[in-house]
Fold this sequence. Notes:
Chain A: InterPro entries: 2Fe-2S-bd, 2Fe-2S-bd_dom_sf, 2Fe-2S_ferredoxin-like_sf, 2Fe-2S_ferredoxin-type, 2Fe2S_fd_BS, Aldehyde_Oxdr_Iron-Sulfur, Beta-grasp_dom_sf. Chain A: Keywords: Iron, Metal-binding, Oxidoreductase. Chain A: This is (2Fe-2S)-binding protein. Chain A: Residues 8-84 form the 2Fe-2S ferredoxin-type domain. The complex is a heterodimer. In chain A, helix 2 crosses helix 5. Chain A has 2 domains: 7-83, Ubiquitin-like (UB roll), CATH 3.10.20.30; 92-187, Orthogonal Bundle (DNA polymerase, domain 1). The mean pLDDT of chain A is 96. Chain A contains 5 helices and 5 strands, in the order ββαβββαααα. Chain A is of the alpha+beta class. Chain A has helices at 29-36, 92-99, 109-124, 146-152, 163-187; strands at 7-14, 17-24, 55-58, 61-64, 77-79. By secondary structure, chain B is α+β, with helices and mostly antiparallel strands. In chain B, the strands form 3 sheets. In chain B, strands 4-5-8-6-7 form a 5-stranded antiparallel beta sheet. In chain B, a hairpin with a 2-residue loop joins strand 10 (242-251) and strand 11 (254-263). Chain B is globular. The interface between A and B is large, with 46 and 41 residues.
Amino acid sequence: MTPPTSSSTVTLNINGEKHTLTVDHRTTLLDALRDRLDLTGTKKGCDHGQCGACTVLVDGRRTVSCLQLAVASEDRDITTVEGVAEGDRLHPVQQAFLDLDGFQCGYCTPGQICSAVAVIEEHAAGWPSAVTADVRPEAGPPPLTTEEIKERMSGNLCRCGAYGQIAQAVARAAAEASTEKLTEETAV
Amino acid sequence: MREFDYRRADDVTGAVALLDADPDARYLGGGTNLVDLMKNGVETPARLVDVRSLPLDRIEAGDDGSVRIGATVTNSDLAAHPLIRDHYPALTQAVLAGASGQLRNMATVGGNLLQRTRCGYFTDITRPCNKREPGSGCPAIEGEHHNHAVLGASEHCVAVHPSDMGVALTAFDAVVSWRTADGAGEAPLNDFYLPVGDTPHRETVLPAGALITHVTLPPARVAARSRYRKVRERASYAFAIGSVAAALEVADGVVCDARLALGAVASRPWRARLAERILVGAPATPEYFTAAADAELAAARPLPHNGYKVTLLRNLVVAVLTELAEETSR
């Protein structure tokens, strides 16, 4: 075995761009994003996986970046809040948060937005949740009610208590996504 | 946090060799518990062996109707899998009742079984804790223990196992398989966790350096009609103060098969075998469900501030079994 080391050079694929950097193995993905790559959109809240402020997408799956080691993030596609829009066109979730006041102080918002983007995809993929009455596949996907949205978004705390508007924003973005999908399918 | 060496393993043999049964090394799965414990100073490994790239991320049906779940399958993928949702719905419900969407995407099945207690004395290195530092004492017994064990605890430790997934796996007789440098081994989950006794720091039967490779669910017709219900101090994203995984098969008003396990009551998921024995052959009515729950909980030894759990669990068992019986008769 090669001698032990406490740091490694890794290439991180973030928002479609490759970044090569040497990280102390103790560095979390969150700290690498904020302190090494100046991607400060991702926020540090509790730093213990309990608040969701640091949520990013890793290979399309929402992840708390405070418990994800940077060295273990090589070869994964990472999307932060800086990467969810398409150029100047906001992601429908971002637009819905703006239109429906889905925040007050805004600190939890990047995590809420990344989480919501994934929630909509998870629901579209047919994933049940803890409030889904019948989880059996033949029951089909549950409608994305406010109760479902609240449960699915429960990993993101909002200390201002903007939950009502956050749930509305997620619902609107989800409805837009399913309409868009329907239009695409009809066009085909 | 202590500095550590990091290795990524490509295959099971390589992972076991990299860990080398070194007590100062740890396997890294999703890291949702381990990395947090490293931040708190509870875990201070000198080397991490990352097992997330191992080819253990599949869920496969066996010819005999069993289901084999790879150790690095994430909680999310386990919960969403059609085989699990169809044949073991309480397992999907249990997984979805735990943690958050983000943590379920990261956390793995093997790691879930090996996660450590959330007892506040265990996670605070400034306090004594027999589990963390053998012989240092257990402040929970005289202190904060409203969410601690009522079954199977000892004067040395009253911490509870935090897993939801494990409660359903226990009810369904899951078997845990592992690999060491010497070969493969396995144990039913019911025998996987050691009694607390005077060695609360020794938690499982896993040999030194063992890597969990998969968990197997044997076929169980009864599991298709099963339910997991969890009580916690808020509606979501919190550990249980009590939970129940149950499965019930009823014919002509009589219970012909039953599975029952309790969560957040002991140092391990608690299989309620005594209650099961009383249930099978008995009328499927709340009276008998209550008798079964009371018999199981007769062994409870609550502390001054967690006696509520006995009542809570009893009511939970009766409610879940009653719902299942009503579903069966529809």
